Amino acid sequence: MTDKLHARTRAIHDGTRRSQYGEVSEALFLTQGFVYDSAEHAEQRFLKSGPDEFIYARYGNPTVAMFEDRIASLEGAEDAFATASGMAAVSGALTSILRAGDHVVSARALFGSCLYVLEEILTRYGVEVTFVDGADLDAWDAAIRPDTKVVFFESVANPTLDVVDIEAVSKLAHKQGALVVVDNVFATPVFSKAISQGADVIVYSATKHIDGQGRVLGGVVLGTRDFIRGTLEPYMKHTGGSMSPFNAWVMLKGLETMSLRVHAQAAAALEVASALEGHAKLARVVYPGLKGHAQHALAIKQMEQGGTVIALDVKGGKEAAFKFLNALTIGVISNNLGDAKTILTHPATTTHQRLPQEQKDTLGITDGLVRVSIGLEHAGDLIADFTAALEAV
Ligand SMILES: *Cc1c(COP(=O)(O)O)cnc(C)c1O
């Protein structure tokens, strides 16, 4: 469909491929392979296959292609490749571009596994990585060199919610000819304008808001057709990180409701953050949608909203944070985000446990910090639950 239509409309219809039965809801092609009419036909297909000609589900599948086309349309990207998880997307995007001797500049505040890929894996293959404070444009400028191949960051960092200025960092990167790879999970495809802001490659964990109901793992890499088909696809299809057709079908249906869900979650996140701001038991309420957040103006410029995740710093460290978590009756203790259920995480002892104390200190991952992914419950019920649990501290 034409991109003159609103994203909500495109999220319902774009990418649809109907079989000979004319089904309304997208079909689940749960097949790894495809039958050829003849040996010559198979030979031809392997030589060159069109957009609706499939060979093997690791290379592509009609249900997966529907998901890829629909998310590419929503993001305003030329093309997309769906992956088995968000980490398959992050590692595939980086590894397909980089080779020994290349230089990468990355923001320091990252999801634990992203940090592991950059710090432990890429360096093992001779890639040099420089980490900077993502909010400090002078630090980016000083670190990006003529031989820098990739600049990588989470546009809103997990779990500290630092916002990185996509437009400004992209300008600095492009000046030196580096590609900008953005992990855009916290912005969600609903609030993202990353391509018009200068990002070259955008990565999502579809496990989060795209599924949105905590069922399956998935990821997606978006970019130019040249990049997706020329650089990424050969890497992904030969190393095996493709999305399963079943998961793609769940994600496709997720895209239909994503805008409604994410808007409702962001509105509730703002209500909850506003209600808890200044609470006597909290040292900090971190939410980019709050006027008091140091990067509020940037967050609004970049995403229009503060997103669906807030961070609470409970006074009294780990013991107090655990008391708060254990006293909740609606919010659940887990580690996903973007789910219909409100999920609370204690990063210092779970997702970011691996980090040395000194690094946690630099990143602001304190012992009292609790990450809160706001779900689809009534905001008033959540505020009552959090307030009562804080009484227990
Ligand atoms: C969850 C997450 C990932 C990894 O996604 P998976 O689907 O769990 O592999 C990567 N980046 C960020 C910012 C995330 O929140």
From TrEMBL:
Key words, A-Z = Amino-acid biosynthesis, Methionine biosynthesis, Pyridoxal phosphate, Transferase
The keyword Transferase is assigned to this record: yes
Q: What is its EC number?
A: 2.5.1.-
Q: Which Gene3D superfamilies match?
A: Aspartate Aminotransferase, domain 1 (3.90.1150.10), Type I PLP-dependent aspartate aminotransferase-like (Major domain) (3.40.640.10)
Coiled-coil zones? none
Q: Which SUPFAM superfamilies match?
A: PLP-dependent transferases
Modification sites for N6-(pyridoxal phosphate)lysine: K208
Q: Name one GO molecular function term.
A: pyridoxal phosphate binding
Which NCBIfam families does the entry mention? Answer: O_suc_HS_sulf (TIGR01325)
Family as reported in the entry's similarity comment: Belongs to the trans-sulfuration enzymes family. MetZ subfamily.
Quote the protein name from its UniProt record: O-succinylhomoserine sulfhydrylase
* Source organism: Sulfitobacter brevis
List the lineage, top down: Bacteria, Pseudomonadati, Pseudomonadota, Alphaproteobacteria, Rhodobacterales
